[in-house]
Amino acid sequence: MPVVEACVRCQTHYVDSTGEYNFVRQVIEKFHEEAKKQGVALVSCCAFDSVPGDLGNYFVRKGLGSEVAEVKAFYQLAHGGMSGGTAHSVMAVHESCGLEDNDPYSLLPKDAPRPPTAPARRGVWYDFSERRLTGPFFMSPTNERIVRRTNALLGYGGTYVEAIEGTLGAVVGATITKYMMTAVLAVPFLRRYVAENWLPPAGTGPTQSQREMSWYKCIFVATDKSGKVLRRTFLSDTRDGYTASGLYISECALSALQMAKEGTLGFGVLTPMAAFGDVLLQRVQNAGVVVEAVEETTTGTATPTQ
């Protein structure tokens, strides 16, 4: 928080790679109005959480306006594991969360309307309309809140919800892991025990060979009030989440520099896509991240449009 305060005081734009939505809420409450007055952009969650979700939601909505009632995101991941820093950050979030942070719309502007809450992916869930077997995505608590703030700042309506998709074994495993971790994190002495005895130490993480075998992709589906699909977007990358985080935060910083120079940068506590929009989209596409419209095959799998 002292770094954010210094940036506002010194009229210096700010981006970060945090995934801690309770921290973002505090930044909004303390600095949003002052940052607007000082002409400063404060942009959090500029890494793997939450740029892919924010970017896919932005792209799939382009040009559709108020037609969109819901965007559903389906993630597929191959990753080499969690770093010590990420694991300890998760613990820190649960240590410092207040009751207000349980609100799924905790990052919305105070005067923003609250859209109908989309059904949360709390367990194994078969999406009949998309023919996908899904489970809870461990990054959705942050991603969904960031995307909902983006929607509010850009004047979009509708809801946004994320899930992970895969085989029955994969989604059952994801569900069991989520609820085991939720139970552990809810009990202070268990939380401390896990942090001290089970978590990898800060500064450690997946090996280079593990990272090289990692990738991620996601399908974003925009529907209207009747459930009719308006558009599907495919986002994919061959980088692992940590390498992708370095790319995303770098491109966010460069977008801020470019837009500040052009005089097109907004001010206040923003989200990646509310702040950088098409500039960031073009930059990450130029860096090799695939973001494009898709057509759906008869088996329900996504095929990029050529």
TrEMBL record:
GO cellular component, one term: mitochondrion
Domain of life: Eukaryota
Parts of the chain that traverse the membrane: none
Entry's Gene Ontology BP terms: glycolipid biosynthetic process
PANTHER family: SACCHAROPINE DEHYDROGENASE-LIKE OXIDOREDUCTASE
Full protein name: Saccharopine dehydrogenase
Source organism (scientific name): Trypanosoma cruzi Dm28c
